Amino acid sequence: MxxxxxxxxxxxxxxxxxxxxxxxxxxxxxxxxxxxxxxxSGCGKTTLLKIIGGFTKPDSGRILVEGKEVSKPGVDRAFIxxxxxxxxxxxxxxxxxxxxxxxxxxxxxREKRLKYLLEMSHLExxxxxxxxxxxxxxxxxxxxxRALACNPQVLLMDEPLGxxxxxxxxxxxxxxxxxxxxxxxxxxxxxxxxDEAIYxxxxxxxxxxxxxxxxxxxxxxxxxxxxRESIQYNEYKKRLTQKLSECYIDGMVEGV
Length: 256
Ligand SMILES: Nc1ncnc2c1ncn2[C@@H]1O[C@H](COP(=O)(O)OP(=O)(O)OP(=O)(O)O)[C@@H](O)[C@H]1O
Ligand SMILES: [Mg+2]
Known about the structure:
By secondary structure, this protein is an alpha/beta fold. The protein has two domains: 1-76 and 154-168 and 184-256, 3-Layer(aba) Sandwich (Rossmann fold); 81-151, no CATH class.
């Protein structure tokens, strides 16, 4: 397995009140697999993703990358935060080069990668611009290529397309899919959007508010690129929408 979530438990204390967010979460992800985490607000998706990224410590359980335990952030796992987290005082070029500099990658190699990444994400000519002067979709693409700059094995994304409009969102889903296909990355994406999860993923995992319990683990067996109008696509959509609506009814979250 490329990535294993092994028996993760996490409890938070709010005003001394205990809140068990994740209980014994287990997920195995294959190399090159694209997995989406879907679930109602507050069910622990971000917490789980941050634990995988090494930003949050679990109370117990382990995260394994190729069988080796990891407990801190590392260049093997790139993280895209929902708000992009670009450096506003740095240009596009400087943003994308930043992690490469941190890793001590030579100027020549940095320029080569930058050129490839800008072309791939249709951001040529934008390298001297600052994030504030870019559209939401462009910022998203900069965050994506910055995350890809150090060739991560695993890409962790927390609602990466949350802030863009419907049409742009569909375009970016297609671009993100192409980028993922070209770079053979293992991806875990948190999303609220059933359509996005089905369009992008090899597998969709639905978490419930009941301690993050996994109530659906569904392989999406559709050829890529996916036809959003097809009957099978819409059957998946119906099934996941139904599953998700069950999460919102307290006490009705039964496992599968
Ligand atoms: N640092 C923290 N301290 C205390 N409680 C926290 C902390 N981080 C998260 N929580 C709580 O854990 C629960 C899960 O939060 P999390 O952010 O993982 O949810 P989520 O599934 O990502 O929700 P959303 O879809 O709204 O982003 C929430 O009840 C939240 O209040
Ligand atoms: Mg979240």
